[in-house]
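Quick note —
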Amino acid sequence: MMKAVVLCLAMGVVAVPKAQAQMTWTDQGFVNVTGGAQAGTHALDTSTSFDLYDEKATVASGQQVKGGGFFDITAGYKVWRNLAAAIGYSHTGSTTDATITASIPDPRVYDKPRSISAAATGLKHSENTVNLMGVWMVPVTDKIDVGVSAGPSIFSVTQDLPSNVAVSEPGPTVSGVTTSEAKKTTVGFNAGVDVTYLVTKRVGVGGLA
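Predicted structure written out below.
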């Protein structure tokens, strides 16, 4: 999974704040809609094979999976004192190119592979995450709330990978690249800090990491 820090702007909608003690969170819940960018890249290398001319052809690829645009929506409800139970959905995605090196058998000479290079463009990377969390809300002032959160996450990732090349003879030359979509779902963990400045009694802006 991509490890990154999310820096973004958050729009918060909160329910009926009351003028009570500074450290007591008196709202009943919140909804945060967040947009921003996920930073960082990681290298992804693959290797696959397919049958060609009654031999095995191999395709190796390398790409740098980049960060991309980030969207998140989270809703929480107060369950005890300053503690809220929350659920959120987030999405990030990007596209990148891959360099390909293939070993292609010779149709006339057995066990005499030939090396060729190519590129695959517009490979898509997508991450969808469901976050379950407990959020401890700390009203710093009448205008500023800080939420500290943690909990489990379910990550669903899809990634386009080069899987096959079409070749033309003599040469060989690459006439096309076939891609496949790899999918994986796994469980992880989330932890974060959200700082919100209340513009009105119900609406605020802030930042999320």
